[in-house]
Amino acid sequence: MHTNPLLSLKNVPGYLGMAVTVLLLGFATSFAMPYMSLFGVQKVGMSPLLLGVYLTVVALSSITISTLLARWSDRLPDRRPVVLTAIAAGTLGFVLLAFTTNYLAVLLIAAVCLGTGSAAFPQVFALSRAQAGAAGEQGMTALRSVFSLAWVVGPGIGAALLAGLHFPGLFLATAACYVGAAIPVLRRMRAPLPPATTSGEEVQASAPATPPRPMHWVALSFVLYGTAMNMGSAALPIHVTRGLHGSEGNVGFLVGLCALLEIPIMLSFVLRARRASNEKLILWGMMLFALYYVMVFVAPNIAWLAVAQAVRAVVVAILATLGMAYVQELMPDRVGVATTLYSNTMNAGSLLGGLGLGVCAGLFGYHAVFVLAGVLSLAAWGLLLATRRGLGARGTAEMVGVRAGD
């Protein structure tokens, strides 16, 4: 008799608490993040240039601070203090933003507090992987589906909070979600972490062992994917409202539909014990992403875009869950750094996506953004495929040899 993998996860010590933490972090990000640019323009009075500076500073500080905290956490016997530090910084940041509209103050708060708070997501997943023990990748996939569930309803709740309580109320509600996310972590501070499984046991339980890959090329592939993702996401609302003469409600429907479709796909990765390797699925996902942008480019109406969201949901489900697991698989002895590396590729993609969107749309119009995003998706696929077939293999082998001889 086979046990349902989802039901078995509830028996993992601390797992349900981590699920609550991930859910509340999902609410915290989905409440406020979609409206941060609106806050900057409407309340702080940012010009397009100042908004661009703000977004760039936030992205760079997130990457820098998350990387430093990841290296620190991997040296500690318990990464929970790092998780709590990141959550506390995010809480403080949104409390301060609720009472601040000065540009320099907002910029400083975003750089220090929100930049540090951004480390909460990768650090919680790194902690959860340690606590999941034998559940390993299946546990992480289930948690990622919980995060997506928060994004299904979070933006709508955020919009209602903004309409009823304005930005101060929205930011204080976000801070409250951060506080709630810290409670399960605090409750288990005295509980010992389960003994770490060896990297070989963990990889063998989920997929065949993956040969070493040059991580700088792997990271660049994910950056290209993240750039395509952010360019397309930013251009889609404008294309829907201007190009296809739809409404803001149509935009919300498409975003929510995609997030909703992601969840059963993610859960299928938990329920299916036998499937293709993470690397093969990620390669297919990047190829499908190029197909998605072709569908968006030729879409004659909103209904066609709704169909395209099914393709996008498959891509996001694969890359958001198995992408993180794949990078962890390549760096089994540095889970915190691996999780943060994956998260930082998305932050870098966000930064480059905003710049690419502005340049491409300024020169060729918003419709052309989907062509560029499709090309970047193909480039990401080609680069990852090249690493699989030996790009940088010699340098990687030499590095492994040097470490073995140390």
From TrEMBL:
Record key words, sorted: Cell membrane, Membrane, Sugar transport, Transmembrane, Transmembrane helix, Transport
Cellular location(s): Cell membrane
Gene3D superfamilies (UniProt xref): MFS general substrate transporter like domains (1.20.1250.20)
Keyword Hydrolase carried by entry: no
Bilayer-spanning residue ranges: 12-37, 49-70, 82-99, 105-125, 146-163, 169-186, 217-239, 251-271, 283-304, 310-327, 339-358, 364-386
Boundaries of every Major facilitator superfamily (MFS) profile domain copy: 214-406
Domain of life of the source: Bacteria
SUPFAM superfamilies: MFS general substrate transporter
Protein name in the entry: MFS transporter, SET family, sugar efflux transporter
Source organism: Deinococcus hopiensis KR-140
Upper lineage: Bacteria, Thermotogati, Deinococcota, Deinococci, Deinococcales
